[in-house]
User: Fold this.
Amino acid sequence: MTRIGLICPTHREEDLHEYTAATLRSFFETTANGIAIVVDDASPGWDPIHESHLKTLARYAGQECFVFRYKEWGGLTRSWNQGLRLARDLGCDYVICGNNDILFPPLWYQGLLHALGQGYSLVGPLSNAPGTGKAQEVWRYYKDYEVSDSLSDLSKVQTYLIKNHMGEVVEQRINGFFQMARTETWWLGKYDDDNVYKPCNNFTSEGYKNATPLMTLNEDELQGRWAKLGFKSASVPSSFIFHYRAVTRGKRHLKGKWHRKNGIE
Assistant:
């Protein structure tokens, strides 16, 4: 049976209590034979109960969750690279380098797997919070979309997209909150013997100094490098995920067509 691995990087205690738990719960409920890999980047206030809670969610769903924790902060790129190493060792067929503040509706993976079977190397879904990837805006394909994180609403959107857009792709660079590829592809396009993502991006593609080299431009560098290798990236209109987006963005969650929900149970 096909095994899909989800890498969830975390960095704050709130991430573990609320958003990561919600992400994993929805992933396990909608993904047969899924495996979650949580890579914690030295979250303040860490307690073993966090790891126990996440693994309990997996056991309840009859699936698996692995937690790896760094004791000193090292940035998002390091977490994704470690997650990819673990996913390869655990025998995942496909791996998602994602954020820990997303929700999965039923059948979210059908369009993505179809695109990966049609010659695309790196794929991403539509979302309510696509960032700079305008072709990933769910409003372009589902005109009546209203921001909601309820399971019934997510399922309604996903069902519509499969019915009306299955098989469609938009060849373009995709946003880094959710990038999915075959495990073997991640490693065919590796940066060096130990890493897929470049460990540190000191400069932008235009040559300007990057103020956050351990945290940003990782997906841009990866996709630029992969394009030179002939790997194609695409957004997939028949797949949808909900993205809170604001877990580490402070009050910026008050702006835009997306929102951050507090107090997830």
About this structure: The beta strands are 4-10, 35-41, 64-70, 94-98, 102-103, 122-127, 170-171, 178-182, 233-243. The longest strand covers residues 233-243. DSSP finds seven helices and nine strands in the chain.
